[in-house]
Amino acid sequence: MAGKVKVWVTGAGGLIGNQLVQLAPRFASDYEVVGLTRRELDLTDFAEVKRLFNQQEPQLVIHCAAMSKSPACQAQPKLAQLTNVEATWHLAGLASEIPFVFFSTDLIFDGRKGNYVETDEPNPLSIYAETKLTAEKAVLKNPKHIVVRTSLNAGKSESGDRAFNEEMINSVRNGKTLQLFVDEYRSPIPAEVTAQAVWELVQQNASGIFHLAGAERLSRFEIGEVLEKYLPELNGKIVAGSLRDYHGAPRPPDTSLNCAKLQELLPFPLPAFSEWLKGNASKLV
Ligand SMILES: NC(=O)c1ccc[n+]([C@@H]2O[C@H](COP(=O)([O-])OP(=O)(O)OC[C@H]3O[C@@H](n4cnc5c(N)ncnc54)[C@H](OP(=O)(O)O)[C@@H]3O)[C@@H](O)[C@H]2O)c1
Question: Whose CA is nearest to atom 10 of ligand 1?
Answer without folding.
Answer: 103
